[in-house]
Design goal:
Number of strands: 11
Oligomer: single chain
Number of helices: 10
Helix content: 25-40%
Radius of gyration: 22 Å
Distance between the termini: 60 Å
Strand content: 15-25%
Largest sheet: 6 strands, mixed
Shape: globular
Length: 332
């Protein structure tokens, strides 16, 4: 009998363990998921950590052995079969001929269906709260509120933004004595992390502060550096979100659940690592007076000190840009 290996992955919060031959590949795993879970391979994305990143069909290396992944965390980013069925039914319904009396309304129906299709495409593929922090379901509701925000949805459709994963950030892992990271964009939209919680983990930050942070991170889907193009796009996204959010921030939730008074000072302050590429921070040579000197300096610093230094230099650059604008912008 051929040797077997066990591989465990998460899908919509549910753990699945498959036993496959020890010679199996990532393509074999995809085929088994299609057969056992009724999720077509073209709808499958695998977020593998640490290091590897996101894999989707057609795989760059379909012969990647599963034996090399048994110690890694694997999250399957894919709609549920019921969601796929609903979308298929909606498509079939929309294609049925309508009675002649309703022909005058055809353009409106067409626009509505197109908007539905675009919202299903240009959105966040998966919502992931951190399960090891208190009240992960509350974080899930917060992330879902951002996903469903009318202004965010409109801007994502306009710019054709599609983000694989929207997740929360652990404040303890992204705080120094000099700076506080509010958001990160990994690989131009594969994963966006947002700092939802207060530093003391006793509440959640102001909704609009986090929504502005999300606008900032969405701009990193296009631009990695905090240059003039980046800030112009960020400002455009913020205006689009505000203009298209007819509910002015979504449905009302209690202040106790989604309010942090200390965020009043952070409302227009945004600190992140710039655009990410290949899993590493892009620090940006233009932010330093001398690239060579900066590289030599960074070599002798710890990761925490590097992040603090990068944040300090970015804030200086941002302040210079704001002063040159003279338009009152103070960052987000």
């Amino acid at each position: 009998m051929e040797d077997q290996i066990s591989l465990t992955f998460l899908h919509h919060g549910t753990s699945h363990t498959f036993s496959l031959p020890s010679t199996s590949t990532i393509a074999d795993l995809s085929s088994k998921i299609q057969a056992d879970l009724s999720i077509p391979s073209e709808h499958q994305k695998f977020m593998i950590t640490p290091k590897i990143g996101i894999l989707k069909t057609p795989f760059p290396d379909p012969m990647l052995p599963l034996s090399s992944l048994t110690t890694k965390k694997i999250v399957l980013l894919a709609p549920l079969p019921s969601e796929l069925k609903s979308l298929s039914n909606a498509s079939a319904t929309s294609s049925k001929p309508r009675p002649s009396a309703l022909k005058s309304a055809t353009p409106a129906r067409h626009r509505s269906w197109r908007q539905t299709q675009e919202e299903a495409t240009y959105t966040f593929g998966t919502i992931i709260p951190l399960p090891y922090l208190p009240n992960p379901e509350r974080s899930r509701r917060f992330l879902e509120r951002l996903r469903d925000d009318a202004g965010i949805k409109a801007s994502m459709r306009k710019h054709k933004f599609s983000v694989g994963v929207l997740t929360e950030m652990n404040p303890a892992e992204h705080t120094t004595h000099e700076s506080r990271t509010l958001g990160l964009n990994h690989n131009r939209g594969e994963v966006i992390e947002l700092r939802l919680r207060t530093d003391a983990y006793d509440g959640y930050r102001d909704y609009k502060v986090i929504r502005n942070t999300l606008c900032h991170e969405l701009a990193h889907n296009i631009y990695g550096e905090h240059d003039r193009n980046f800030w112009d796009l960020t400002k455009d996204i913020e205006k689009e979100v505000e203009r298209n959010d007819w509910r002015r921030g979504g449905h009302a939730l209690t202040n106790e659940e989604f309010y942090n008074p200390h965020d009043q000072d952070l409302d227009r302050e945004h600190v992140d690592g710039g655009g990410w590429t290949g899993g590493e921070f892009v620090l940006g040579g233009k932010e330093m007076a001398s690239k060579t000197t900066a590289e030599e300096t960074m070599h002798n610093l710890s990761r925490r000190e590097i992040l603090a230094k990068a944040a300090e230099e970015r804030m200086k650059k941002q302040n210079e840009i704001r002063r040159s604008d003279g338009d009152g912008r103070t960052g987000s």
